[in-house]
Amino acid sequence: MISENKTHLIFKAKTFGFSVFAIVDPKPTPTSITLTVEPEEVTVGEEVTLRGRISPPASLPISLYTVRPDGTVDMKTLTSSPDGSFLLALKLNMEGEWRFTAEFAGNSSYERSASSWVKAVAKPRMPVENIISLIVIAAATITAMLIIKRIK
User: Fold this and answer.
1) Conformational region of residue 106, where left means phi above 0, alpha means psi within -120 to 50, and beta covers everything else
2) Could you read off the pLDDT of 23-58 as tens digits, one per residue?
3) Same structural domain for residues 17 and 45?
4) Mind giving me the DSSP string for 40-94?
Protein backbone atom coordinates (compact mmCIF):
# COMPACT_ATOMS: atom_id res chain seq x y z
CA MET A 1 0.00 0.00 0.00
CA ILE A 2 1.34 3.43 -0.89
CA SER A 3 -1.42 5.74 0.39
CA GLU A 4 -4.85 5.97 1.95
CA ASN A 5 -7.61 8.58 1.94
CA LYS A 6 -11.14 8.76 3.37
CA THR A 7 -12.57 6.47 0.69
CA HIS A 8 -9.70 4.38 -0.74
CA LEU A 9 -6.62 2.31 0.05
CA ILE A 10 -4.19 2.68 -2.87
CA PHE A 11 -1.69 0.02 -3.89
CA LYS A 12 0.88 0.32 -6.66
CA ALA A 13 2.62 -2.48 -8.54
CA LYS A 14 4.63 -2.90 -11.76
CA THR A 15 3.89 -5.84 -13.99
CA PHE A 16 5.46 -6.94 -17.30
CA GLY A 17 3.76 -5.23 -20.22
CA PHE A 18 1.50 -3.09 -18.05
CA SER A 19 1.83 0.36 -16.59
CA VAL A 20 1.55 1.27 -12.93
CA PHE A 21 -2.01 0.73 -11.63
CA ALA A 22 -3.96 1.15 -8.40
CA ILE A 23 -6.28 -1.28 -6.65
CA VAL A 24 -8.87 0.43 -4.55
CA ASP A 25 -10.97 -0.79 -1.63
CA PRO A 26 -13.65 1.84 -1.04
CA LYS A 27 -14.64 2.65 2.52
CA PRO A 28 -18.25 3.81 2.99
CA THR A 29 -18.62 7.49 3.84
CA PRO A 30 -20.16 8.21 7.28
CA THR A 31 -23.63 9.81 7.20
CA SER A 32 -25.93 11.56 9.64
CA ILE A 33 -29.65 12.38 9.55
CA THR A 34 -31.57 15.19 11.22
CA LEU A 35 -35.37 15.19 11.59
CA THR A 36 -37.86 17.78 12.87
CA VAL A 37 -41.65 17.82 13.23
CA GLU A 38 -43.82 20.95 13.05
CA PRO A 39 -46.05 21.79 14.72
CA GLU A 40 -45.41 19.65 17.79
CA GLU A 41 -49.05 19.88 18.91
CA VAL A 42 -52.16 19.58 16.73
CA THR A 43 -55.81 18.63 17.01
CA VAL A 44 -56.75 15.10 15.87
CA GLY A 45 -57.21 15.18 12.08
CA GLU A 46 -54.66 17.95 11.45
CA GLU A 47 -51.31 17.52 9.68
CA VAL A 48 -47.74 17.75 10.87
CA THR A 49 -44.76 18.25 8.58
CA LEU A 50 -41.68 16.07 8.98
CA ARG A 51 -38.53 17.68 7.55
CA GLY A 52 -35.18 15.97 7.41
CA ARG A 53 -31.74 16.06 5.87
CA ILE A 54 -29.04 13.47 5.29
CA SER A 55 -25.44 14.54 5.28
CA PRO A 56 -23.39 14.43 3.16
CA PRO A 57 -26.05 15.53 0.64
CA ALA A 58 -27.17 12.82 -1.77
CA SER A 59 -30.33 11.29 -3.26
CA LEU A 60 -30.76 8.23 -1.04
CA PRO A 61 -33.66 6.04 0.16
CA ILE A 62 -34.83 7.13 3.61
CA SER A 63 -37.15 5.00 5.76
CA LEU A 64 -39.45 7.10 7.93
CA TYR A 65 -40.86 5.21 10.92
CA THR A 66 -44.00 6.37 12.75
CA VAL A 67 -45.05 4.96 16.12
CA ARG A 68 -48.73 5.73 16.63
CA PRO A 69 -50.28 6.32 20.09
CA ASP A 70 -51.64 2.73 20.10
CA GLY A 71 -48.10 1.35 19.56
CA THR A 72 -48.48 0.32 15.91
CA VAL A 73 -45.55 1.14 13.65
CA ASP A 74 -45.83 2.44 10.08
CA MET A 75 -42.94 2.81 7.65
CA LYS A 76 -42.77 4.94 4.51
CA THR A 77 -39.82 5.07 2.14
CA LEU A 78 -38.84 8.42 0.65
CA THR A 79 -35.92 9.47 -1.52
CA SER A 80 -33.95 12.48 -0.38
CA SER A 81 -33.33 15.33 -2.85
CA PRO A 82 -29.82 15.84 -4.26
CA ASP A 83 -29.30 18.43 -1.48
CA GLY A 84 -30.07 15.67 1.06
CA SER A 85 -33.44 17.05 2.19
CA PHE A 86 -36.72 15.17 2.51
CA LEU A 87 -40.25 16.15 3.54
CA LEU A 88 -43.48 14.39 4.46
CA ALA A 89 -46.86 15.80 5.55
CA LEU A 90 -48.78 13.38 7.76
CA LYS A 91 -52.31 13.60 9.17
CA LEU A 92 -52.49 12.58 12.84
CA ASN A 93 -55.81 10.75 13.04
CA MET A 94 -55.54 9.40 16.58
CA GLU A 95 -55.34 11.17 19.94
CA GLY A 96 -52.05 10.90 21.82
CA GLU A 97 -48.27 11.03 21.34
CA TRP A 98 -46.83 10.20 17.91
CA ARG A 99 -43.09 9.43 17.55
CA PHE A 100 -40.96 9.58 14.39
CA THR A 101 -37.46 8.64 13.28
CA ALA A 102 -35.71 8.55 9.89
CA GLU A 103 -33.17 5.91 8.88
CA PHE A 104 -30.81 5.29 5.99
CA ALA A 105 -29.88 1.60 5.74
CA GLY A 106 -26.48 2.25 4.20
CA ASN A 107 -24.94 0.95 0.98
CA SER A 108 -21.51 0.35 -0.51
CA SER A 109 -20.82 4.10 -0.67
CA TYR A 110 -22.47 5.41 2.52
CA GLU A 111 -22.70 4.13 6.11
CA ARG A 112 -26.00 3.52 7.88
CA SER A 113 -27.44 6.30 10.04
CA ALA A 114 -30.62 7.21 11.90
CA SER A 115 -32.06 10.41 13.30
CA SER A 116 -33.02 11.03 16.89
CA TRP A 117 -36.67 10.41 17.76
CA VAL A 118 -39.00 13.41 17.52
CA LYS A 119 -42.60 13.59 18.71
CA ALA A 120 -45.90 15.37 18.15
CA VAL A 121 -49.06 15.26 20.23
CA ALA A 122 -52.58 15.07 18.78
CA LYS A 123 -55.09 16.64 21.18
CA PRO A 124 -58.77 15.65 21.09
CA ARG A 125 -61.22 17.69 19.04
CA MET A 126 -63.72 19.83 20.87
CA PRO A 127 -67.08 18.05 20.64
CA VAL A 128 -69.72 19.73 18.44
CA GLU A 129 -72.01 20.04 21.48
CA ASN A 130 -69.38 22.18 23.23
CA ILE A 131 -68.98 24.42 20.19
CA ILE A 132 -72.75 24.91 19.92
CA SER A 133 -72.94 25.66 23.66
CA LEU A 134 -70.20 28.30 23.32
CA ILE A 135 -72.02 29.93 20.40
CA VAL A 136 -75.32 29.99 22.33
CA ILE A 137 -73.62 31.47 25.41
CA ALA A 138 -71.85 34.12 23.30
CA ALA A 139 -75.12 35.04 21.52
CA ALA A 140 -77.00 35.25 24.84
CA THR A 141 -74.26 37.44 26.34
CA ILE A 142 -74.30 39.83 23.38
CA THR A 143 -78.13 39.98 23.46
CA ALA A 144 -78.12 40.71 27.19
CA MET A 145 -75.53 43.47 26.74
CA LEU A 146 -77.63 45.08 23.99
CA ILE A 147 -80.79 44.94 26.14
CA ILE A 148 -78.95 46.48 29.12
CA LYS A 149 -77.63 49.29 26.88
CA ARG A 150 -81.18 50.09 25.64
CA ILE A 151 -82.56 50.13 29.17
CA LYS A 152 -79.98 52.68 30.35
Assistant:
1) left
2) 555 789 999 999 999 999 999 999 999 999 999 999
3) no
4) SEEETT-EEEEEEEEES----EEEEEEE-TTS-EEEEEEE--TTSEEEEEEE--S
Q: Are 124 and 46 in contact (CB under 8 A)?
A: no
The letter for the amino acid at 69 is P
Distance CA 107, CA 62 (A): 12
Q: Structure pTM?
A: 0.69
User: Is residue 60 within 8 Å of 97, Cβ to Cβ?
Assistant: no
Q: How many CA atoms lie within 13 A of 61 on its CB side?
A: 7
**Mean pLDDT for the stretch of residues 81-100:** 97
Question: Does residue 143 form part of some domain?
Answer: no
For residue 89, give its domain range.
31-125
Predicted confidence at residue 16, as pLDDT, reads 62
Helices and strands in the chain: count of H runs, count of E runs: 1, 12
Looking at the domain assignment, is residue 59 inside a domain?
yes
Give the chain's mean pLDDT: 87
